[in-house]
Amino acid sequence: YVSHINALLEATDPTREIRIVNMGISGNTVRELKDRWQTDVLDLAPNWLSVMIGINDIMRHFNRRHLRDWHVSLEEYERTLNELVASAKQNGVEGVILMTPFFIEGNRGDRIREMTGSYGEAMKRVALRHGAVFVDVQQAFDRYLAHHYSVEIALDRVHPTQTGHMIIARAWLQAAGYSWDA
């Protein structure tokens, strides 16, 4: 999704000077993000910061059931996000965009889907607390899932196809106030 956002911004407004750096690492939880926050965020001194993290925090409760020390509780997730966003703002980051984790599953009663909703609400609370732009990625997928099955865009319900990445990019651009007429 990051490359889609970058390409669309460059294609529609070539006069704008924007540098997008994707520091996301597959499989990371908020704990690993915290460990690399200094080098991957603060040392780069960005004007704006966008964060989407959480599905791995959730999945470890299911795919590492017996490794409880690997589990990231909802409380730890929210507390850590709050600390990271506060440190970014204290270090001169002008704007923050926070994106919910998502699970591409139309059945809202699914246990992983329910937990994803709770972590998404935590992300929303952090966004409100810090005046950040909030992107409800799950809601964007829900609009799609009202008409399609999840396997059309993510066999494992976590790693989307290009269509899924475009859904994320579109939600980000809309929340960020991007105008197609730029």
Architecture blueprint of SSEs:
Elements lengths: L1 H11 L17 H11 L7 E5 L2 H9 L10 H17 L4 E5 L11 H20 L2 E3 L1 H9 L16 H14 L7
Parallel strand pairs: 1-2, 2-3
Helix pairs in contact: 2-4, 3-5, 4-5, 6-7
Determine the number of helices (DSSP H or I, runs of at least 4 residues): 7
Cα end-to-end separation: 20 Å
Record field, number of beta strands: 3
- Supply Rg: 16 Å
* Average of the residue pLDDT scores: 94
Largest sheet: 3 strands, parallel
How large a portion of the residues is in β-strands, by DSSP E? 5-15%
The residue fraction in helices comes out at 40-55%
- Structural class determined from secondary elements: mainly alpha
| Poorly predicted segments | none
- Give the neighbour order of strands across the main sheet: 1-2-3
Q: N-to-C SSE series?
A: HHEHHEHEHH
Instruction: Identify the overall geometry.
Output: globular
Task: Describe this structure as you would to a colleague.
The protein is globular, with a radius of gyration of 16 Å. It is 50% helix and 7% strand. It is mainly alpha-helical and 182 residues long. Helix 6 packs across helix 7 (162-175). Strands 1-2-3 form a three-stranded parallel β-sheet, with helices on both faces. The chain has seven helices and three strands, in the order ααβααβαβαα. The model has no long low-confidence stretch (mean pLDDT 94).
Key attributes of the depicted protein:
182 residues; mainly alpha; three-stranded parallel β-sheet; 7 helices; 3 strands
